[in-house]
Design a protein that fits this description.
heterodimer, A: 207 residues, 8 helices, 81% helix, B: 491 residues, alpha+beta, Serine Threonine Protein Phosphatase 5, Tetratricopeptide repeat, 2 domains, four-stranded antiparallel beta sheet, SGL (chain B), membrane (chain B)
Chain lengths: 207, 491
């Protein structure tokens, strides 16, 4: 009985986001394990979508597909988003906990997962003239996801609309800063490693 | 082990010996590898499409060495005209490259006249020779025998801007005897004269292109700085050719343009078909620094009767041949000093299936013959152009035997299969040829086929499904009623 509820609640959230996210936060209906399951599902679906979308709307070079690389388009942005949003909202009197941010974001992924599956299946049986249907579904999925994410973050932190918009913009900026710092650290470590390596080699040659 | 080694050596030596005396001519070998661009813009190795057959530089002939020749033209009856600019003369050869005549002087009125650094030539179907006599700033019309007919001077009109200088370099004449002249430094477009030699206007002026950063600098700059900056002027054309239908093909030497080759309709609009995989810009991959950096720089274009056209890139000495839809068919040529390479290639034309490239820097003309591969591609395009998909597909199959990476061939075969109604197979070929539009067509028919075939089964399944659902719902309702009945009874 409990298991049925796990599936039913996310679907309820999709169609009744205001009530749904409220219940997610205050009635503790959301589950972190389900959230990670959704993230995993989206990754798998995205990988399958890249590979198996019908030829007519599939513009990927099959020789360049890499499932591992797919992680960086889904899992990495997800983690960055959650961390950045948490960092910003703790400073901006947001009521959401880190766990709730993860859940809200992950539950918003549900339309992406389901519509991607549908659009991938449809893409296998359409002609070029019917391709707008495919692209329409893709667009719907994205808009729905963004809408849910917006409502989710707003509800979880108990923000007004304007404050949510500002937080969104700030979150994006924080993500950019984090990426920049990350790259900086990577390149510094690289320099250090190569420095140590050079010294080691030099010593080897001289001894 | 040692014996084995010796044996191998003997075999290799024998093979080399055979090669030495094999009937394959030396001309078949060129000093560069051949390539073509795949759908994914990779440079894939390809068989050579053309190999050098003959070099004509005037050595050991009665007319003597060529000196900085600027243009070559092949007339409808396969007579070859070389503009030997350095020697101020025109050399006329027959299709076996034997001398017919040399035109260096002609009787203009009472005096004997001659060319001064001529750079362009065009011969009409009737045999009139038009020469762009650059140094004398005029166009000369001669008869087939080289007798003077008339001269056409600089264009006279109110629309001509001040400071306009007239140095005709290239010329073409259409079937109505309208004369199209390209002038050096003329960015107004192609200069058009009517059949009487009266200036009628400019056509096909290239649009001004500037990049936004330049524009920002220009706004910030002071008056003096602005004056020192380069002007935003349209790029000038550098060559032209006329096809059977009277459309003018032109080239220009602009960097980073997406339209270095244009096909102008009578109103001067570019109507070149671009149905191929990529933009028609010659090389897609190129160095961004170094001596020959940047996009291909086309200096001449030549059209054959099947809608194919070859454009000559002076920067890297390459010839790019496209079909009428804009598919890149093959690439050959390179800068260098060996036979089959060029120093400063300036003009290209076709004699039958042969491609002729004039090299100003090396003072010579190179005749290229198609290889088996090149010839099959030509034939396939030829038949396709004539609407014979079947014959075209046969040649495309031959092409695939020689180069399985030749993606356009798959489309060609697919089209023929589609005509035959083999939709499923056609789909596979279109997929290999990356043609989404044709794949879609084939798939549409295939889907219809399947639906028609399995209509009965599909309907049965659907009816069964609905019946099942309906019965399930009624069953539940009955059950519920019973339950509630029981509950009521309990009460």
């Amino acid at each position: 009985m409990l298991k049925m509820e796990w599936i039913k609640f996310p679907i309820f959230v999709c169609f009744h986001p205001f009530k749904g996210f409220w219940e997610l936060k205050y009635e503790e209906k959301g589950r972190i394990s389900i959230a990670f399951l959704f993230l995993f599902c989206l990754t798998v679906v995205a990988i399958l979508k890249r590979q198996f979308t019908g030829f007519i709307v599939n513009f990927n070079n099959p020789t360049e597909l890499n499932s591992i690389a797919e992680l960086q388009y889904i899992v990495l942005p997800f983690i960055l988003w959650c961390i950045a949003n948490w960092s910003i909202t703790t400073l901006m009197e947001g009521e959401g906990k880190f766990k709730e941010i993860i859940m809200a974001t992950a539950y918003a992924l549900v339309p992406l997962i389901s519509l991607y599956i549908i659009s991938t299946l449809i893409s296998l049986v359409i002609t070029w003239e019917e391709a707008p249907l495919y692209f329409f579904l893709e667009t719907i999925a994205t808009i729905w996801f963004l809408f849910l994410l917006f409502i989710g973050i707003m509800t979880v932190h108990q923000y007004t609309v304007t404050k949510t918009v500002v937080t969104f913009a700030l979150t994006v900026i924080v993500i950019a800063v984090m990426l920049f710092l990350g790259l900086l650290i990577f390149s510094l470590i690289q320099q250090m490693v190569s420095f140590v390596e050079t010294i080691y080699r030099e010593l080897l040659y001289r001894m | 082990m040692v014996r084995y080694h010796t044996l191998t050596r003997i075999i290799v030596a024998f093979a080399l010996f055979l090669c030495l005396f094999s009937p394959i001519e030396a001309s078949a070998a060129v000093s560069y590898p051949s390539y073509n661009y795949s759908y994914w813009e990779n440079t894939d190795p390809s068989p050579l499409p053309y190999t050098p057959e003959k070099v004509i530089d005037g050595r050991g002939t009665s007319y003597g060495l060529l000196n900085s020749p600027e243009d070559v033209f092949v007339s409808k009856d396969n007579t070859l005209y070389i503009v030997d600019s350095g020697n101020n003369r025109i050399i006329v050869l027959d299709e076996n490259y034997e001398l017919i005549q040399v035109i260096d002087t002609f009787q203009n009125g009472t005096s004997t006249d001659q060319f001064n650094d001529p750079k362009g030539i065009f011969v009409t179907e009737e045999g009139s020779i038009y020469v762009a006599d650059t140094g004398n700033q005029r166009v000369i019309e001669l008869t087939e025998e080289g007798e003077f007919i008339r001269e056409i001077g600089a264009p006279q009109s109110d629309v001509i801007r001040t400071g306009f200088e007239y140095h005709p370099i290239k010329i073409a004449v259409d079937k109505a005897d309208r004369i199209y002249v390209i002038g050096r430094g003329v960015y107004d477009g192609i200069i058009e004269f009517d059949s009487d030699g009266i200036f009628t206007g400019f056509i096909g002026a290239n649009r001004v292109r500037f990049n936004p950063i330049d524009y920002v600098w220009r706004i910030i700059a002071t008056e003096e700085q602005r004056e020192k900056m380069a002007l935003f002027i349209p790029i000038e054309f550098n060559n032209l050719d006329i096809d059977e239908e009277g459309f003018i093909y032109t080239t220009n030497a602009e960097e980073d343009t997406s339209t270095p080759i244009q096909r102008l309709n009578p109103t001067g609009e570019d109507v070149l078909r671009k149905e191929g995989y990529h933009e028609l810009i010659g090389d897609l991959e190129y160095a961004h620094t170094g001596s020959s950096a940047g996009t291909s720089t086309f200096v001449d274009v030549s059209i054959n009767q099947f809608g194919m056209y070859s454009a000559l890139d002076i920067k890297r000495g390459r010839v790019f041949t496209y079909d009428e839809d804009g598919n890149l068919l093959y690439i050959f040529g390179q800068l260098g000093d060996q036979v089959g390479t060029f120093r400063t290639p300036v003009a290209i034309d076709q004699l039958g299936e042969d491609i002729i490239v004039l090299d100003k820097g090396n003072h010579r003309l190179t005749v290229f013959k198609p290889t088996v591969f090149g010839s099959h591609v030509n034939q396939a395009v030829h038949y396709y152009n004539q609407g014979d998909d079947q014959a075209s597909a046969e040649y495309w199959k031959e092409v695939l035997q020689l180069n399985a990476n030749y993606e356009i061939a798959y489309i060609g075969i697919g089209k023929s299969l589609l005509m035959e109604g083999k939709n499923k197979e056609a789909m596979t070929y279109f997929k290999n040829g990356h043609s989404r539009s044709y794949y879609s067509k084939a798939y549409k028919r295939y889907r219809q086929e399947i639906l028609r075939e399995h209509f009965g089964l599909g309907m049965t399944v659907m009816v069964c499904f609905f019946l099942c659902v309906a019965s399930l719902i009624t069953f539940r309702k009955i059950k519920r009623r019973k339950v509630s009945g029981v509950e009521n009874g309990m009460d």
